[in-house]
Design brief:
The protein is of the alpha+beta class. Helices cover 31% and strands 33% of the residues. It has helices at residues 2-31, 108-145, 157-182, 228-233, 294-299, 402-428; strands at 45-51, 53-69, 72-75, 81-86, 95-96, 103-105, 185-186, 192-197, 204-205, 212-216, 219-226, 250-257, 260-271, 282-289, 308-325, 329-330, 334-339, 343-354, 358-363, 370-372, 385-388. Helix 1 (2-31) runs antiparallel to helix 6 and helix 2 (108-145) packs antiparallel against helix 3 (157-182). It comes from Hyphobacterium vulgare. Keywords: Coiled coil. This is Efflux RND transporter periplasmic adaptor subunit.
Length: 429
């Protein structure tokens, strides 16, 4: 009997363990929580976009330069002497008129030279008169007593020429003496300002000594560097010279002066004859007339020499150009465009001009399309997007439909759950 029980236990115990294991497995499968299914498709990326405009655009070139005098000279004497007078306006920053005496040199020696030259002229003139009388007398004597043709020496023609030459030399010396006397008064042939002063009252100066530096105030110039791409935006040839029939482009100069933003109007008048070999740029010269007068009255402040200014040069007009924000450019020739339905597409363009805020292009874009301006990580052609304006307002026509995506995802999840339940029941059976 004991042997029979032991045999039965040996048979049914393993079977019971297996049955218990299978039952536990079925219970675990039936009661296991259903895993949440995730939509494998990427959700649309939110991007900012701005409309593309089509219009005629006047190009502008932005550059910089320093204001310098159009006419500037070193003030130097042509005669030697001690300075006896200095104009009160002959000081750094002083204004003066054309022909106004700025410095006078002691003229005593030069007045004496004029007196001596005048005396020599009088003597030479008297000698010429005497020689003319003797020549007339010689001619009459030959007519009365001579025979044949008289020689020039007999008629005293060489003596006459010598006396005339002596008079001419004396008059030239007098003119030179008077000219040197005039040169003791030093002035400039234009109205201007004094940049530097190098001599003062009582100083002895010689010919060519530097007394100071002055410049004219009728006009100033600004040398503006232009790169090759900037030259292509201007409607001027490389060797440009403004004329009445072909005036140069308008230039707007601006700078912070005494804490206030100022602007002045200038005109481009010419370009340099050569390209700078070091910077490889071509300089164009803009001119402002009457910078301390009319220009100052128009802008509330003069345009002083030495001021560093920003310049905006008016260029050529581009017909039917496409304009968009500068941030829309990707690389050198690509923009991202939001198409209807919420997809991103790549477009190739050619950049005509660009600034800090604006991009002017031609190419595969159209008016009214939305150029994407925000950064897009791992962008791909045809990716799904949600398009927002700069104010954050969503544009439905340029955005992917999220509601249909969610419904499709929900339908797929429900179908998957039903399939899993059916599979579990089949396993349990």
């Amino acid at each position: 009997m004991n042997k029979t029980k032991s045999r039965l236990v040996g048979i049914f115990l393993p079977v019971g363990v297996i049955v218990a294991f299978v039952a536990a497995f079925i219970v675990m499968q039936v009661t296991a929580p259903t895993p949440e299914r995730v939509d494998p498709r990427p959700r649309p990326v939110a991007v900012f976009a701005a409309p593309i405009e089509r219009t005629d655009v006047v190009l502008h070139v932005e550059t910089q330069g320093e204001v310098s005098p159009l006419t500037e000279i070193d003030l130097v004497p042509q005669v030697a002497g001690r300075i006896t007078y200095v104009n009160p306006n002959f000081i750094e920053g002083g204004f003066f008129e054309a022909g106004e005496t700025l410095i006078e040199i002691d003229d005593a020696d030069y007045r004496l030279a004029v007196t001596r030259a005048s005396a020599q002229v009088a003597q030479a003139r008297q000698a010429l008169v005497r020689e003319e009388a003797e020549a007339d007398l010689a001619a009459r004597e030959w007519e009365e007593l001579g025979e044949g043709q008289a020689s020039p020496l007999t008629l005293r023609q060489p003596q006459m020429a010598q006396a005339q030459a002596a008079l001419a030399a004396a008059e030239a010396q007098l003119q030179e003496a008077r000219l040197n006397l005039q040169r003791t008064r030093i002035s400039a042939p234009f109205a201007g300002r004094v940049r530097t002063k190098s001599a003062d009252l009582g100083q002895y100066v010689g010919p060519g000594a530097r007394l100071g530096q002055v410049f004219a105030t009728d006009a100033v110039q600004i040398r503006l560097p232009l790169t090759n791409s900037q030259l292509s935006m201007l409607n001027i040839p490389v060797a440009f010279q403004a004329t009445e029939a072909n005036p140069g482009p308008n230039v707007t100069l601006s700078a912070e002066l005494a804490g206030t933003h100022r602007e002045w109007q200038a005109q481009l008048v010419r370009t340099d004859s050569t390209i700078d070999p070091q910077t490889r740029v071509l300089y164009a010269i803009a001119v402002v007339n009457d910078p301390y007068g009319q220009a100052a009255a128009q802008n509330g402040a003069p345009l002083p020499v030495g001021l560093f200014v920003d310049a905006e040069v008016e260029g050529r007009t581009v017909q039917d150009a496409y304009v968009m924000p500068r941030s829309a450019l990707r690389g050198t020739d690509t923009v991202y465009v939001a198409e209807a339905g919420g997809t991103l597409v790549f477009r190739n363009i050619s950049v005509i001009a660009s600034s800090r805020d604006r991009l002017i292009v031609s190419g595969d874009v159209h008016e009214g399309e939305m150029a994407i301006t925000s950064p897009v990580r791992a962008a791909s052609n045809g990716m799904r997007i949600r398009t927002l304006t700069a104010e954050g307002e969503e544009l439905p026509e340029f955005s992917a439909d999220l509601s249909s995506d969610e419904e499709e995802a929900g339908d797929e999840t429900e179908t998957d759950e039903q399939g899993e339940q059916a599979a579990n029941l089949a396993s349990a059976e």
